[in-house]
């Protein structure tokens, strides 16, 4: 039986813009077989939503606590979203 997909929303705080966080998240999400999006927010955070199996989401969540080499993550908020969006792929937005 296939594992049920889950949907998470993650907000990452710290020095996370201008350090290739979105591009690196895109690569990791695709590597883990996830769908969704990542974008910069006006408040300096990076926001992403991802869907996939629980193990893949956990890998992504672990990764965003560190991020790419020049990022300095100070806080990560993760929220499970009840409804699946049915994203077709993972994309980087603005």
Notable traits:
39% strand, 94 residues, 2 helices, Alpha-Beta Plaits, alpha+beta, five-stranded mixed beta sheet
Compute the separation of the termini in Å: 37 Å
Radius of gyration, CA atoms, in whole angstroms: 12 Å
Low-confidence stretches: none
| Mean pLDDT over the full residue set | 96
Order of strands in the sheet with most strands: 4-1-3-2-5
Order of helices and strands: EHEEHEE
Q: How many strand units?
A: 5
Give a description of the structure:
- 23% of the residues lie in helices and 39% in strands.
- With 94 residues, the chain is α+β, with helices and mostly antiparallel strands.
- It has a single domain, classed as Alpha-Beta Plaits, CATH 3.30.70.100.
- A hairpin with a 5-residue loop joins strand 2 and strand 3.
- Strands 4-1-3-2-5 form a five-stranded mixed β-sheet.
